[in-house]
Amino acid sequence: MVTQVVKGSGYATAFKAVAALNTLSVLAQAVTAGQLMSGGGGSLHGVGATAVHVLGLAQLVVAVLLWRPGRGAGWPALVSLAVLLLGFVQSAMGGSGVVTVHVPLGMTLFGLSVWLLVWSWRR
After folding, report:
1. What does the pLDDT look like over 40-67, one tens digit per residue?
2. Is 40 exposed, middle or buried (0-12, 13-18, 19+ CB in 10 A)?
3. What is d(CA 83, CA 53) in angstroms, rounded to the nearest whole number?
4. DSSP character for 40?
5. How far is CA 24 from the centre of its chain?
6. Is residue 58 within 8 Å of 116, Cβ to Cβ?
């Protein structure tokens, strides 16, 4: 249920924007991962990981603001925390060459990010 406080605050709009940027950054990681398979894009993939981490943190902050002062739902903050933490684990797995864990975590991150994005726009 969406309260009038959530609708009147800028938190919902901020969450939509950050969720969109986060989802796009995770999608860009998939594209640069594909470029890695064909022998290029290594530096872009590394820079993209930083973007995913920064946007994941921003999404968590905005989700908490949406929840506590904004009186919105609390579960997006928990999912955003999961996205942030899984992003760090995924990055560590990729850096150490454990692709069998890195790739499924990337797909999970993308799924969670799309879920939050769709939820934010359907409210």
Report:
1. 767 888 899 999 999 999 999 999 999 9
2. exposed
3. 9
4. -
5. 9
6. no
| DSSP-based three-state secondary structure for 107 | helix
* Cβ count within 10 A of residue 56: 25
> Which tokens in the block code for residue 32?
């640069």
Q: Rounded CA gap, 64 and 112, in Å?
A: 17
* CA of residue 60 relative to chain centroid, distance: 9
pLDDT digits (tens, 9 = 90+) for 8-37: 679 999 999 999 999 999 999 999 988 887
Count of all residues that appear for the chain in the document: 123
Q: ∠112-15-73 over CA atoms, to 5°? A: 75
Three-class secondary structure of residue 76 per DSSP? helix
